Amino acid sequence: MSGLWPYVQNDKISNHVLLGGRKLEKIKQNPIVKKIGFNRIILAGVLVLMYILFGVMCSVMGRASFFNISRIYSALNYTYFLGFLALGVTFVIATGGIDFSIGPVMFCSALISGYALTKMEVPLGVCLLVSILVGTLFGLLNGYLVAYWDMPSFITSMASMMLAKGIGSVFTKTQSVSWPQATEANGWYRSLVKITSGGSIIPTGLIIFIIASIICAIVLNKTKAGRYILCLGSNKEAVRLSGVDVRKWEALAYVLCGMLAGIAAIFFVGAYSTVQPGLGDTYNNEAIASCVMGGTSMAGGVASIGGTFIGVLIISLLQEGILAMGFQKDFQYVITGIIVLVAVYIDNRSRKRKN
Questions:
Q1: Can you tell me the distance from the alpha carbon of 298 to that of 185, in angstroms, rounded to the nearest whole number?
Q2: How many CA atoms lie within 13 A of 187 on its CB side?
Q3: Which DSSP letter does residue 274 get?
Q4: Cβ neighbours of residue 343 under 8 Å, at least 6 residues apart?
Q5: What is the pLDDT of residues 301-329, one digit of tens each?
C-alpha cells in the first residue's frame, strides 16, 4: 500500500487542480465578470492591496500616514501625464510595434510650447495647441517611417527619441522652462489638472483622463480604425491581402500616440511646472509597463484600454508608495522591470496555450 501512496497522492493533487481550474473557469464565465474583464478585476484587487500594504508599511516604519488624501492627490499628479502616454502607446503596441520616443517627445512638446509662452509671449491657448502639434508631428514621422518605409519601429522610435531630446535642447538653448503658476497670468491652464476651491481640491485631471480613456476604448474597439489596428497586430499580411491599406492604419496608430504625448505634456507642466531638456526616457518604460500589465500583448493583436487605465494607477501608486517609505526612486525602476518581465512571461504562456 505504501508503494501505491505516491500515485494516490498525485491523483488527489490532480483532481484538486482540475476542480480549481473548473471553478476558476466558472468564475470567468460569469456574465458580470465577462463584462468587466477577469484581468481587470484582478488588477483592481492588486491596486487596493498595494494601497493597504503601503499604508501598513509606512505605519510600521514610523513614516507619515499613507492613508491621507494628499497622498492620493500626489499620486494622481503622476497619473495624468503617464496615463496619456500609456493610452497612446497602447495603439502602437496593438499593431505589434513599439514607441520608445513618447517620454522625450512629451518633454520636447512642453519645452517648445513653454519657451514660446514665456520667452516669445505667444498666447497660452496657441501654446497648448503647439504642444499637441509637436507631439502629432513626431507621431506622423514615426508612422511614416514605419508604415511607408518599412523601418523597424524599435530603431525608428529610438532615433525619434534622440531627435526629440536634441530639438528640445536646441530650441530652448539647453535652458529649463518654467510654466506659470496658478496665481500668475496665464496660469488658468492648471485648472485642467486640479481646481482648488474653498480649501477643497477638485481633481479635474482625473475626470479628463477617464473621458479620454473612454474615447480611446471606443476608438480601439468600436471603430473601423481600431479594428484594423488590432488586426495588424494579429496578422498584418492577411489584412493586406484582403485589400486593406495597412500602411494608412499602421501610421494612424503612431499619429494617435504622438498626439496623446503632446497632450501629456500639458498635464505634466500642469502638475510639475518646470521642464528640463534631455529627459523623459524613464516615462517610456513606465507607460509601456502600464500597457503590458493591463493585458496589452507585446506581440500585438490584443489590447485593453481599461487594463491600461488600471495599470497606470498601479504604477503611479507604486511611485508614491516608494517615496512615502523613504526609498529612492531607483527601487521603482527595479520593481517596474520585474512587473514587465512577469507580465510578458504570462502573455507568452497565454499565447502558447491558445496556439
A1: 44
A2: 13
A3: E
A4: 289, 292, 293
A5: 999 999 999 999 999 999 999 888 888 77
SS3 letters across 36-86: HCHHHHHHHHHHHHHHHHHHHHHHHCCCCCCCCHHHHHHHHHHHHHHHHHH
CB 159 within 8 A of CB 167: no
Count the residues in the chain: 355
Distance CA 291, CA 276 (A): 26
CA atoms of 349 and 343, how far apart (whole Å): 10
pTM, two decimal places? 0.91
Q: Measuring CA to CA, how many Å separate 251 from each of 101, 149, 296? A: 15, 11, 19
| Residue carrying the nine cell digits 458580470 | 32
Mean pLDDT of 49-67: 89
Q: Where are the alpha helices (DSSP H) in 152-302?
A: 153-171, 204-222, 224-241, 246-272, 281-293
Whole-number Å distance between alpha carbons of 75 and 313: 8
DSSP state, residue 280: -
Number of H helices, E strands in the chain: 13, 4
pLDDT class for 343, splitting at 50, 70, 90? confident
Within 13 A of 16's CA, how many CA atoms are on the CB side?
Answer: 6
CA distances from 232 to 156, 157, 215, 276 (A): 18, 19, 21, 37
Give yes or no for a contact between 260 and 83, defined as CB atoms under 8 angstroms apart. Answer: no
Strand-pair category, 200-202 with 195-197: antiparallel
Classify residue 140 as exposed, middle or buried by CB count within 10 Å of its CB (0-12, 13-18, 19+).
middle
CA torsion 74-76-78-79 (nearest 10°) is 170
Collapsed DSSP state (helix, strand, coil) of residue 130: helix
Band of residue 127 on the pLDDT scale cut at 50, 70, 90: very high
Torsion of CA 201, 202, 206, 207, to 10 degrees: 180
- Please give, one letter per residue, the 3-state secondary structure of 98-118: CCCCHHHHHHHHHHHHHHHHH
Query: Pick from 159, 145, 144, 162: which is nearest to 107 by CA?
Result: 162
Cα 219 to the center of its chain, rounded Å:
17
